[in-house]
Amino acid sequence: xxxxxxxxxxxxxxxxxxxxxxxxxxxxxxxxxxxxxxxxxxxxxxxxxxxxxxxxxxxxxxxxxxxxxxxxxxxxxxxxxxxxxxxxxxxxxxxxxxxxxxxxxxxxxxxxxxxxxxxxxxxxxxxxxxxxxxxxxxxxxxxxxxxxxxxxxxxxxxxxxxxxxxxxxxxxxxxxxxxxxxxxxxxxxxxxxxxxxxxxxxxxxxxxxxxxxxxxxxxxxxxxxxxxxxxxxxxxxxxxxxxxxxxxxxxxxxxxxxxxxxxxxxxxxxxxxxxxxxxxxxxxxxxxxxxxxxxxxxxxxxxxxxxxxxxxxxxxxxxxxxxxxxxxxxxxxxxxxxxxxxx
Length: 343
What we know:
- The chain is built from 4 helices and 40 strands.
- By secondary structure, it is an alpha/beta fold.
- The protein folds into 2 domains: 6-93, Udp-n-acetylmuramoylalanyl-d-glutamate--2,6- Diaminopimelate Ligase, Chain: A, domain 1, CATH 3.40.1390.10; 102-312, 3 Solenoid (UDP N-Acetylglucosamine Acyltransferase, domain 1), CATH 2.160.10.10.
- The longest helix is centred in the C-terminal third of the chain and has 31 residues, at 312-342.
């Protein structure tokens, strides 16, 4: 990974911050407050980190106005949002490495396949027939694309990614290592004697700026299409069933499972290990806490938690009541022998 260097003044200019202290301090890396050294940048987002800030050896720190003074690093860059500013600095300090364009001689390219300008196709990639790959895409080693797959511009496919035939991937999409897009879903017709697979003839569509984590699987539709909306991000080890439609800008975290034909609105958050049963509707802006099990529709803007999931405040009240039962039981057990002795 290529690492650049910036002065504290350059960092302040980059993030539009107010520089306090020595603008000539050289920044070569970013580290947490407790491990940063004199040539490294750190950040504190609130007074909660005041003690760590006081003892930090960082060369410069990004801080909100409330932490602009005090003991600790003398060079401070005051910004409204230190974490957001840090992201911009990281992009400047650690720029993306340039990649070689062209097709590795070990790759196999099917008939009728069209590659856009400045595409990079690594070793042992297999491209089916009539595949369309947009400009500046990067396909890491071992990628497999079935017949008729379409990929937009500036999309990155990590090692071992598989896109089954007919999948459609937008522009600026990132598929991390081992992601599987457009395979047949888990659909069977059972008659008591056997389970007969239901043919899946729909497609799998990922709109622009979607990111899919490692070993996440998104199934194709059975008779409808599976759709992941623009800007949605899926973590590692997520399972999305057939015919599911997920809206824009959703965050779906590790281990989530979404059963077939569920509809999820825009800006929804599903925290780790949430399970969603089939044919449900989760409204825009809903928030589902980790480990929750969703068995019914969730209204727009609602926060749900628990197993089975219910409105979050209701769940907290139920939990508090349950924890109060133990001392009540203890008191009852003390009273029972007393009543027996009086009898």
